[in-house]
Design brief:
With about 325 residues, this protein is an alpha/beta fold. About 25% of the residues lie in helices and about 30% in strands. Strands 3, 5, 6, 10, 11, 18 and 19 form a 7-stranded mixed β-sheet that branches. It has a 6-stranded parallel β-sheet with strand order 14-13-12-15-16-17, sandwiched between helices.
Length: about 325
């Protein structure tokens, strides 16, 4: 089968053996997959990952011990936990110390014709939801994680830094839940697109320092944390969503002086993302710039890395 693979610090499309499912796993034929900024960072060396990239997917179950899953269109949680350790027993499977992470850590991902996944990780995709919309379930779940971690009131002033995919999705989720934020970016085209989607958006230099109760850093850049620190008010909260290859160098003194709360935020709950999409309360397909066939994966990733580009999807071959 075809797969886009990272190996020996090189990334390329190649023929690889079709995966064989293990106990408790399903074999899923991938229909479409989304390119995430994390995938671009992996190509730059993030996590030192080797294997097939991709973790935002929709597919169909072709093999499974449980016949009720056969032929079902699914998406999947990306953390493959042991289910036995103390953290797993406490319901913190996303933090299992021996977990593998789909297309990111120790587990081949979804930029391929087939992928194997634990049945316990699968979620059924509602019939009325398009494949393209379903590719947004995993990143939307990461946005809903913010609402689980931070109590944001309708009176709070909230800024989302980063006019890319994750920042725009975060602004959509928060706006739907009673606290419309301001989306802060540096690309006029992305700001204009967000404004057309009804998201209040602006450029960074137009903001007043120390004027936001909650700042969500989703720039994907080391410079984003410095900007977040300058914008949050004393005793405010910074939510760090960015992942990137390289070190973060910052002066921590302002965090102490202003008594800031810094919260790391990663993966999130799938059920609210599925519910909002199924009810058409969120419509993320407007973020899609283009769709490439898997055969053009290298060109797709190059395109996704260009300034001003938002979501790029990979369409898998029809069987």
């Amino acid at each position: 089968m075809l797969a886009f693979v990272r190996h020996n610090q090189q990334s390329s499309l190649r023929e690889v053996p079709k995966p064989v499912r293990g106990a408790g796993e399903a074999l899923v034929r991938v229909r479409a997959a989304g390119i995430c900024n994390t995938d671009l960072e992996i190509i730059r060396g993030y996590m030192g990952f080797e294997g097939t990239l991709g973790h935002e997917l929709v597919g169909v179950v072709e093999e499974c011990d449980d016949p009720s899953w056969l032929g079902v269109r699914v998406t999947s949680e990306i953390n493959l936990a042991c289910q036995r350790c103390e953290l797993c027993q406490r319901g913190l499977q996303r933090h299992c110390p021996t977990r593998r992470v789909l297309g990111i850590l120790g587990k081949d991902g979804a930029f391929a014709e087939y992928v194997t996944l634990p049945v316990e990780n699968l979620h059924r995709v509602p019939d009325g939801l398009s494949d393209r919309a379903a590719c947004f379930i995993e990143p939307l779940a990461a946005c809903f994680e913010i609402l689980e971690q931070v109590a944001i009131s309708p009176h709070d002033r909230v800024a989302v830094l980063g006019d890319g995919k994750l920042g725009t999705l975060t602004a959509m989720v928060l706006g739907n839940h009673g606290t419309p934020p301001v989306l802060v970016g540096k690309h006029a085209s992305k700001i204009a697109r967000a404004q057309r989607m009804g998201i209040r958006s602006t450029l960074a230099h137009e903001l007043s320092p120390k004027s936001y109760d909650v700042v969500i850093e989703a720039t994907g850049s080391a410079s984003g944390m410095e900007l977040a620190t300058s914008l949050v008010r004393p005793r405010g909260t910074i939510v760090l969503k960015s992942t990137y290859h390289g070190a973060l160098t910052l002066q921590a003194a302002p965090w102490v002086i202003d008594e800031l709360t810094i919260i790391g935020s990663r993966c999130g709950p799938f059920p609210p993302a599925l519910s909002e999409l199924a009810a058409a309360r969120l419509s993320p397909e407007g973020l899609i710039d283009t769709v490439f066939p898997l055969q053009d994966a290298e060109r797709a990733l190059q395109h996704a890395s260009k300034p001003g580009v938002l979501k790029v999807l990979l369409q898998m071959p029809e069987t």
